[in-house]
Structure formats: structure tokens, C-alpha cells
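HUMAN: Spend a minute on the protein record below and explain its fold to me.
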Amino acid sequence: MAAADVLTGLASSLVSGTVKVVDLAAPLGPETPVLYLPPQFGKNTPNVKVHQISRYDQDGPFWAWNWLELGEHTGTHFDAPAHWITGKDYADGTTDRIAPQNFVAPVNVIDRSKEVAADPDYLLTVDSIKAWEAEHGEIEAGSWVVLRTDWYKRNGSTETFLNADETGPHSPGPTAEAIAYLISKGIVGWGSETIGTDAGSAGGMNPPFPAHNLMHKANRYGLASLCHLDQLPPKGAILIAAPLKFVNGTGSPVRALALVP
């Protein structure tokens, strides 16, 4: 089938509703949970602030607009390789230099929501990924892999979303070995429903924060705080996640979308 026919068919399917557009992003505003790091890791991202410029008033009689204060890695967001020290030297590692072809790709959805409901510290292993592949098919090079945990349902509260106590945050994520395995498959990036792409216990792993460390070392990308992965099939959907074209940006909030048959 010619490429033009493929696009025509997709357009018709979108109009008819046989292909559904699923919103994978959380609302972004002053109540959006932000990551709080231990003091030894440095400064934290501030909460989102919205400043009104005008609202059909003396400051602008016919229009309303605001200006914003927010971190690059706030809410549902994209991590570029330059976000981590292991990826800082890539010429195409910032949000303004990544090839836009990489923002649209097939997505593999590994559902471990039952395991996470039983254990919030659940870690995805290589064996678990291989079991998923045995059931659903091989993970393809150039695709996204995302972990469905239903953690996004906690997103309304910073306390429940971070799920931290005196021992630290308790949230699911991948082992270092799982990330290394996915990189060996040639994926374009890794995504999660938690506040970052790593597990709450990732600071104590080897290497620390392996989803960040290893993915960005391989010039690959991350997506965090994804929502509604429970509306996606294990395979067959297309993920669209385009960061804002910040000059030298290390990441960006995104309105991530999935095209689902």
C-alpha cells in the first residue's frame, strides 16, 4: 500500500472513530505533583505558577492570556538525553535537536497493575519482560515500551503520588537489568505512570536511577507521569509525544497521545 493511501486510511479512521485518540497526559497546573529529592541531590523543581497577563479587561480588552513558571520535568513530561550526565554530550540530545521522527512510534504496553496493587515497590525484571514477549510478541526496534501500573490514579494528590515515608518513596519501576535489556532491543524510549521514569527505590540501585542513567547514555528518551495506559492494548497503538522545542532543553511537559484501533 502506498504511503499516501496509508495516510488517507488513517484520516478516514480518525473521522469515523475506528481509530481512537487517547489522552495520556495529566492536567498541568498549580496542583500538579512535583518531585522532591533528598537534600544531597540538590535543588527541586518548584510547583507550577500561573500569572495572569490580561482577561478581557484594561490590561487586554479583547483577549486573555497568562505567563507560566514551571520546570521542564513537570507533569506528564519528556526526558531528553541531556537531562542526565550520561547523555550530556550528544549533539542531538536536547529537545530542539531531536529528530521529530522519534516523537511518533509504536508502543508496547507491559501491564503489571495487579503486581503493583499488591506491592507498590514492584520492580520490572528481564524475566517479566520476556514473559510478556512470549504472550504478545517481540518488542520491536524503534518502538516505545511503557509500564502500565495504574499509578496515574493517584495523581490527584502529591502525597499519594509520591507515596513517601521515612524510608523514602515507594513506587514501581524497572530494574537496571530490565532497562539494559530494552536498550538491547533498540527501543526509542521508556515510559512510566510515576512521577519519574525510575522506581522510588532507584537511588539505591547500581547504577543509581538506571532508567535515566542507561536510557540517556544510549541517546534514548523517557516519558513520565503518563495516564490512561489502561486504555491501550499491549501492542498495536501509536504513541505521539513531542516536547516543546526549548533551545537546549533537557525535557518538556507534553500532551502525549495514543492512536488506538
Remarks:
- The mean pLDDT is 96.
- The CA atoms of residues 170 and 200 lie 5 Å apart.
